[in-house]
Amino acid sequence: MSDIFEKEANPENIERARMVVCIPSYKEADSIAYPVSQADEGLRKYFPEYESVIINCDNNSPDNTKQAFLDTPTKTPKIYLSTAPGVKGKGNNFRNLFQKVSDLKAKAVVVVDADLKSITPEWIKHLGEPLFSGFSYVAPLYIRHKYDGTITKGIAYPMTRALYGRRVRQPIGGDFGFSGSLNQVYLESTIWDESVANFGIDIWMTTLAINQKMKICQAFMGRPKIHRTKDPGADLGPMFRQVVGTIFSMMGHFDAYWTRVRNSRPTAIYGFGLGEVEMPPKVGVNRENLIDQFHRGFETHSGIWHEILTPDAYRKLIEIKGMRVPEFNFPTDLWARILFDTAVSYGRVTIDTDQIMDSLIPLYFGRTLSFVLRTEKMSIKQAEEAIEEDCATFERAKPYLLKRWKEKVKTP
């Protein structure tokens, strides 16, 4: 193994491709072979008429991800791309991808996560086919456990839907498809910051697709998403700051659009309906940890809450602070207004944006606990219906956001 850094490995000297499957990675040597082999099979089975390539966009992983990728037997040619040594971040991987897709003049791009255990060749079909049928952006639709993807359920989906008027259930799903023309939009966009360069990239891509009025659909994946699941109260790390921070910062870029949107409309579903019987793996939740984190927030962040929330929202937080786990309830309307208040303050007050994000995390834990308690006896389908009700509540609360947003704009 050579220690010399290589930005690109293109063993078959591929210069043109009509279709690309990309697998972004960092330290995925143990898991990457499986999605690569499934992608290879999917391309050969469902897109045999197109010149295709599988690209691994990596962050110069120290665990030999590169070799694991290149050594996986495939009939489809492969290209390995890496960010420079020391440059991390999923978004930075995608910047390499956007440039390569442009160089290859590809018409369709499918992206799948490197830690997927449930991917089948059909996933490549479901995410790729719509791109040859007039769609420019394909978001995934899969069954997930009630408590998997709580940032999506509690923030990304209801916020995207209320703001931009499109019901895209998995706006940060990690597996998606986009056209060559949308790739150019991504490549040329000047909206870029540290959050987008990291975990904010997925919501950035979805938001740009919606705001560019691209034809969007959702593809039913046919199987649950099975990957490395985590307790929603553990290991939140920078992902929360980057995803939610990107949602808030993009509101400033696109307020001419979303302030005019009044209602949401469904997004076409490509493939079969939600008739899946295979159940996703269980996700454990430490409820005491969630309420402890919520309570600790009052000790460390109440000063920030007092400044960025309305007096009514702050007063209601104090009311629910006294509740213990069995009766704990964090109402959806209050949660929507707290997110809207935070969005209005983000980048517009003297408080550092990282501090604003950190202050939101304990509230997110409280809201997540409330969702867990409310849905614990529900089926996955019933829990999905509860999320749809939450989204409708966000939409009804939008006039509150518009009023506060306009007030803040007028404030010097």
Folded structure, characterized:
With 412 residues, the protein is an alpha/beta fold. The chain has 2 domains: 8-270, Alpha-Beta Complex (Spore Coat Polysaccharide Biosynthesis Protein SpsA, Chain A); 287-410, no CATH class. Helices cover 49% and strands 11% of the residues. It has 15 helices and 11 strands. The protein has helices at residues 33-46, 65-71, 90-104, 121-128, 150-164, 180-188, 201-211, 237-253, 255-258, 287-308, 311-321, 332-345, 353-375, 380-396, 398-410, and strands at 8-9, 19-25, 52-58, 78-82, 108-111, 137-141, 166-167, 176-179, 216-220, 265-266, 268-270. It has a 9-stranded mixed sheet, with helices on both faces. It has a two-stranded parallel ribbon with strand order 7-10. Helix 3 (90-104) crosses helix 6 (180-188) and helix 12 (332-345) runs antiparallel to helix 13 (353-375). The N and C termini lie far apart (58 Å). The mean pLDDT is 92.
